[in-house]
């Protein structure tokens, strides 16, 4: 079956856009005639990456809500609309020793979780004004299967998946489909500190292009609130969330949670 592609001339914003996934995604979207605005931390290197891709660059630290809003306003002013926001910026904890470095923990959660919350807050009104569109959050397999080596990353990505699922119904009512992608380990700079271990063990890692394909499919074809697992040799598959045991009424019947409080996967 052929996947629908984004309409030529539509406008997409990518956070953390100068990184491995961002570059692969930008390249593929540009080839589909999508106008791509790359955002990332301000540096010569990141500006050059955008220039090499032929994309405008806007500096953005995702932890700053006002800066997210300013970037979206600029995209609308310069391109007339915003159809898709890829909330993709992220870091992992550098240290994996037994002690937990709380400063580092908070930094990871601030970027990987609250950066996503800020991005949704900023992009929602603009995508609604465009008549609807998509928000695709780069979570991680670690958000579904926590990593003992990086509790902060696991919490942040698990939170991002929960945020996507809980926001989905209200965004859907605005015509916006929000979804999460949950890649396993992929060949980008973020795995530099542990790359050797994969190589030694002969463990397969994803290419950034494989992940970018799933990111594009999520724009055009995702179910609201879905999380797509991406693994080498597997492709992108929707994750099936398991429901929790239900409450019982006094008469012993299963109590039904009011619809408005149910996650999308339980409706
Ligand atoms: N590569 C993997 O194995 C893997 C697996 C699952 C999920 N992810 C997630 O994919 C996303 C993209 O990562 P990547 O693999 O391309 O790694 P990457 O390190 O190449 O890219 C991450 C980008 O995020 C940017 N960034 C960091 N802090 C930021 C901030 N405060 N504001 C704005 N931008 C910021 C960095 O400058 C960088 O360009 C991240 O959210 C990461 O957690 C990666």
Could you say how many structural domains there are in total? Answer: 1
The proportion of residues forming helix, as a percent range, comes to 40-55%
Instruction: Give the CATH class.
Output: Alpha Beta
Amino-to-carboxy terminus distance: 27 Å
* Helical segment count: 7
Structural classification = alpha/beta
* CATH-defined superfamily: NAD(P)-binding Rossmann-like Domain
- CATH topology (level 3) name: Rossmann fold
User: How much of the polypeptide forms β-strand, as a percent range?
Assistant: 5-15%
Keywords for this entry:
267 residues; alpha/beta; Rossmann fold; 8-stranded mixed sheet; 7 helices; globular; binds nicotinamide-adenine-dinucleotide
Structure description:
The structure is a single chain. Helix content is 41%, strand content 15%. It has 267 residues and is an alpha/beta fold. The protein has a single domain (11-266), classed as Rossmann fold (3-Layer(aba) Sandwich), CATH 3.40.50.720. Strands 3-2-1-4-5-6-7-8 form an eight-stranded mixed β-sheet, sandwiched between helices. Helix 1 (20-31) packs across helix 7 and helix 3 runs parallel beside helix 4 (102-129). It is globular and about 65 Å long. The two termini are 27 Å apart. The relative contact order is 0.13.
Write the layout of secondary structure elements.
Blueprint: E1 11-14, H1 20-31, E2 35-40, H2 44-53, E3 57-59, H3 65-79, E4 84-87, H4 102-129, E5 133-138, H5 151-173, E6 176-183, H6 195-201, H7 208-221, E7 227-231, E8 235-238
Parallel strand pairs: 1-2, 1-4, 2-3, 4-5, 5-6, 6-7
Antiparallel strand pairs: 7-8
């Amino acid at each position: 079956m052929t996947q629908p592609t984004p309409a030529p001339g539509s406008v997409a914003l990518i956070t953390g856009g100068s990184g491995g996934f961002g570059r692969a995604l930008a390249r593929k979207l540009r080839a589909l005639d999508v106008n791509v605005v790359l955002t990332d931390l301000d540096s010569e290197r990141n500006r050059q990456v955008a220039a090499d891709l032929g994309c405008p660059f806007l500096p953005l630290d995702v932890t700053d809500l006002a800066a997210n809003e300013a970037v979206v306003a600029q995209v609308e002013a310069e391109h007339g609309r915003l159809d898709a926001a890829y909330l993709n910026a992220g870091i992992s904890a550098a240290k994996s020793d037994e002690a937990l470095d709380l400063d580092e923990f908070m930094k990871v959660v601030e970027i990987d979780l609250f950066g996503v919350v800020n991005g949704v807050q900023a992009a929602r009104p603009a995508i609604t004004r465009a008549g609807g569109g998509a928000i695709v959050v780069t979570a991680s397999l670690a958000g579904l299967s926590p990593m003992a080596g990086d509790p902060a990353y696991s919490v942040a990505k698990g939170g991002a998946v929960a945020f996507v699922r809980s926001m989905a119904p209200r965004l859907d009512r605005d015509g916006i489909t929000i979804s999460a992608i949950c890649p396993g380990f992929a060949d980008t700079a973020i795995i530099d500190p542990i790359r050797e271990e994969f190589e030694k063990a002969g463990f397969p890692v994803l290419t950034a292009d494989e992940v970018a394909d799933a990111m594009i499919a999520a724009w055009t074809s995702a179910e609201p609130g879905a999380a797509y697992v991406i693994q080498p040799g597997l492709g992108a598959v929707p994750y099936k969330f398991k429901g929790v045991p239900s409450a019982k009424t006094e008469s012993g019947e299963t109590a039904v949670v009011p619809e408005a409080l149910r996650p999308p996967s339980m409706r």
